[in-house]
Design goal:
With 384 residues, the chain is mainly beta. Among the domains are: 74 residues, no CATH class; 154 residues, no CATH class. Helix content is 7%, strand content 41%. The protein is built from two helices and 27 strands. The strands form eight sheets. A six-stranded antiparallel sheet has the order 17-18-21-24-23-22, with no helix packed on it. Strands 2-11-10-7-8 form a five-stranded mixed sheet, with no helix packed on it. A three-stranded antiparallel sheet has the order 1-3-9, with no helix packed on it. It starts with a strand and ends in a 9-residue tail after the last strand.
Length: 384
């Protein structure tokens, strides 16, 4: 299920909010199958492919034993009983089966997030339990610096010990200490008050730091691709040098880089304006809809919803003088663009011309699918 990923990286400023997620959960979901009681999730096999995983729980064991009772089967044999002794809850279930008593009440596993400050005493500063369908956790870093260990465990039903899942070391930067200003002093001499004040040192008032725009991506090692989740496409970018992949957007298909790799064009599918992460709306693009869309790329690449923690600002405006209007959503100097004539809901994929002046796509505004070319300049006309 791991490792744990922090939205800020492994260094955090005092008071900063951090969201922790599990990288091994492909769709961010872990649940107990209602029919069997098996723990189920979609995870990675470590080589880039996804697999369905099913893990037995005491709920599963309890239901299997009740089926044996219901159909009056001969009995149960426990393999390697002394090599790996059952836990307390498992023993209770086996005894109930042997005595043919009423089945035990079922309870599903929960997540347990624990944060421990690493110092002489290694004090636990937080321990919180969350339901199984909430796989992420948000924490506000303390105002004091230090190293913190973040642990996540699965608390199974009954009195069993929690199952360790993953851990992460996180460093909270120490708060900056302001430099004190010298205090003026005075002394009396010859019956009159003589000033002996040191010349005060001018201290420049610090200005708020200007947000730094993420650097533009220009690497030739990036690969854009999509995955089908059974309903829509998810857009990823992979770095062929490191093998790392990053989710960029959901409800996005048919990607294509501009020649300079400063922008990425794709086809927005139904729902692209509301990006869902961990079962909730993480960011919205109110004026962006189905059809051709382009976004500014940053390097290193990141989830579009992590570019700005607050809402994106969306408006319809002219990007350049003399051009037609476009829908533009902006956050932290990164923009998502959609010219009004790009809103073609039947489009399936797009490619950018080598000169970056036009895009090609397929669509069926009427009849069957055809190949269309449309200039990036919104005042130009389409032809096919």
């Amino acid at each position: 299920l791991g490792p744990i990923q922090a939205s800020t990286g492994e260094r955090v400023a005092p008071g900063q909010r951090v969201t922790f997620t599990l990288a091994g959960l492909v769709n961010g979901k872990l649940d107990v199958e209602p029919e069997t009681g098996l723990l189920h999730f979609v995870g990675s096999d470590g080589q880039g492919a996804t697999q369905q995983w099913y893990l037995p729980t005491n709920v599963y064991l309890n239901r299997q034993l009740q089926r044996i009772v219901r159909y009056n089967l001969a009995g149960v044999m426990v393999d390697d009983l002394f090599a790996a002794p059952p836990t307390g809850q498992t023993w209770t279930i086996l005894r109930a089966f042997r005595a043919r008593t009423e089945p035990l009440p079922e309870s599903n596993p929960n997540w347990v997030w624990t944060i421990t400050k690493q110092n002489d005493s290694s004090k636990t500063v937080l321990a919180e339990t969350q339901p199984l369908d909430k796989t992420g956790y948000t924490w506000t870093a303390p105002d004091t610096g230090g190293e913190f260990q973040i642990n996540v465990e699965l608390s199974m039903a009954g009195d069993e010990a929690p199952l360790p899942v993953a851990s992460l070391m996180l460093k909270v930067e120490a708060p900056s200490t302001p430099t004190p200003t010298p205090t003026p002093t005075s002394t009396a001499s010859g019956g009159s008050l003589a000033s002996n004040k040191p010349t005060p040192t001018r201290t420049a008032t610090p200005r708020p730091a200007t947000p730094v725009a993420p650097s533009r991506a220009s690497s030739s090692f990036l690969l854009a691709y999509t995955k089908w989740d059974g309903h829509f496409h998810d857009l990823y970018i992979a770095d062929s040098r490191t093998g790392q992949t990053q989710l960029i957007l959901t409800h996005a298909a048919g990607p294509s880089f501009s020649t300079d790799k400063k922008r990425l064009f794709f086809i927005g599918e139904q729902g692209v304006d509301q990006q869902i992460r961990e079962g909730r709306v993480a960011c919205t693009f109110g004026t962006i809809s189905e059809g051709i869309v382009s976004i500014d790329l940053t390097y290193p690449v990141q989830d579009i919803c992590q570019v700005q923690s607050d809402v994106w600002t969306c408006e319809r405006k002219e990007i350049d003088v003399g051009r037609g209007p476009s829908d533009v959503c902006t956050a932290n100097n990164v923009s998502v663009y959609q010219n009004l004539d790009w809103k073609v809901g039947s489009a399936r994929w797009t490619r950018v011309a080598p000169d970056n002046d036009s895009v090609v796509y397929d669509a069926k505004p009427g009849g069957g699918y055809r190949i269309y070319f449309r200039a990036v300049d919104p005042t130009s006309q389409q032809f096919h």
